[in-house]
Amino acid sequence: MLARKPIQDISVLDVAGDIDFREMIRIKNAIGSLIEKERIKVVLNLKAVDHINYLSIGVLLERLKLLRNLNGDLKLSGMSPFLRDIFKVVGMDRFFEEYTSLEDAVASFDDDWEGDGTSH
Fold first, then answer.
1. In whole angstroms, how far apart are CA 25 and each of 21, 43, 44, 47, 75?
2. Is 115 within a domain?
3. Is residue 113 included in any domain, yes or no?
4. Is the CB of residue 79 less than 8 Å from the CB of residue 98?
């Protein structure tokens, strides 16, 4: 797992290979340390991920809820159709915003922000 240099105020975590429970806990902790630094806009880049342990997706959901409570978000990018199916099977696809490319995921934070701006 690799944290990229932030894009504006958005943190990107690149993950690769097979995400088992132990790896998911690492991701959870990485997001935790971002939150401690008040970095609450996170994109998890799953482009290089082959497989996700479906039981571990719940760990990610807990982080998603925490970030949203802090007015942040956790978005997913680059999922293969296979990964998308895993999320669907466990019913998690309805919780996460998922984007084909990392650029789209990052840009989507701007859309949200502009959306908030027009309501005042």
1. 6, 16, 14, 19, 17
2. no
3. no
4. yes
On whether residue 13 sits in a domain, the answer given is yes
Tokens standing for 1? 């797992």
Q: What is the pLDDT of residues 80-111, one digit of tens each?
A: 999 999 999 999 999 999 999 999 999 999 86
> What ranges make up the beta strands (E) of 4-40?
10-19
How many domains does the chain contain in total?
Answer: 1
**Residue 109 belongs to a domain:** no
Torsion (CA) 98, 110, 5, 43 in degrees, nearest 10: -20
> pTM higher than 0.85 for the full model?
yes
- The predicted-structure confidence for 21-71, as pLDDT tens digits, reads as follows 999 999 999 999 999 999 999 999 999 999 999 989 999 999 999 999 999
